[in-house]
Amino acid sequence: MEAEQQIPSLEEAAGRYFRDGSERARGEAVTAAFGLIRYYAKLYGGSCDREDLFQTGCLAVLKALDGYDPNRSVRFTTYASHCIMGEI
Q1: Which tens digit of pLDDT belongs to each residue from 7-62?
Q2: CA 88 → CA 45, 71, 73, distances in Å?
Q3: Which has the closest alpha carbon to 77: 64, 66, 62?
Q4: CA 11 → CA 47, 51, 65, 75, distances in Å?
Q5: What span, in angstroms and rounded, lies between the C-alpha atoms of 7 and 35?
Q6: How far apart are CA 88 and CA 21, in angstroms?
Q7: How far apart are CA 80 and CA 68, in angstroms?
Q8: What pLDDT is recorded for position 1?
Q9: Integer Cα distance of 55 and 44 in angstroms
Q10: Contacts of 29 (CB under 8 A, 6+ apart)
């Protein structure tokens, strides 16, 4: 029986992306952010289409990955949350 594949935390996935810069790590970081995106889509979405808001949130995470400076003393999750809220 295959072991279940664990989704890493957003911090772990983003850290992996910042270390190696691969497209796979980038995709894993977006996947790890799905719960956070859904949370903000539900919280701030009002009567808007949740799927549209989810896609917007995914784009926000991609922008956050491009704009984040790992040398600053702020967690990526905090930075990404603000980016998601701003886009939604």
Answers
A1: 789 999 999 999 999 999 999 999 999 999 999 999 988 888 889 999 999 999 99
A2: 7, 27, 25
A3: 64
A4: 30, 24, 11, 7
A5: 11
A6: 26
A7: 8
A8: 41
A9: 14
A10: 10, 13, 14, 16, 17, 61, 65
Q: Which residue has the tokens 């991609």?
A: 62
Which of the 8 DSSP states describes residue 45? -
R_g of the chain, CA atoms, integer Å? 13
Dig out the tokens for 87 from the structure. 């886009």
CA proximity to 65, closest of 4, 11, 7: 11
Which structure tokens are listed for 53?
Answer: 């808001």
Q: Which residue type occupies 58? A: C
